[in-house]
Known about the structure:
Distance between the termini: 48 Å
Strand order of the largest sheet: 1-2-3-4
Largest sheet: 4 strands, antiparallel
Number of strands: 4
Number of helices: 2
Strand content: 25-35%
Order of helices and strands: HEHEEE
Helix content: 25-40%
Radius of gyration: 17 Å
Amino acid sequence: MxxxxxxxxACAAAITLAGCGHSHKAESTVKDFxxxxxxxxxxxxxxxxxxxxxxxxDSAVIEMRKDAERNPIFxxxxxxxxxxxxxxKYVYTKAEICVGGDTIAHTFYLNPEENRIVAxxxxxx
Length: 125
């Protein structure tokens, strides 16, 4: 019984650590993206969730990119992942960006390697 408990704890620790690396890389990529593309230097960002999804279509990516051009806290002409074939699965991370006293939630969609932003959207709560 003692060996089963130790094995269970070891597996739980491995899963937890793997999940932390997953979110850290995505968060780092988003932070780099924000540094290049947000229209102000006076902002803070806090991350709330990182996961993956297969429920994003090519047309949704196109629409998110169009909407981003109208998002007033971002610069115009954002350069995204230049892949010619969109991935079947995206990693996404939810972030709350605080600019000028306003906190605005966004979801950022990344390629599976988590090294490029494919699209993002502002959350409408």
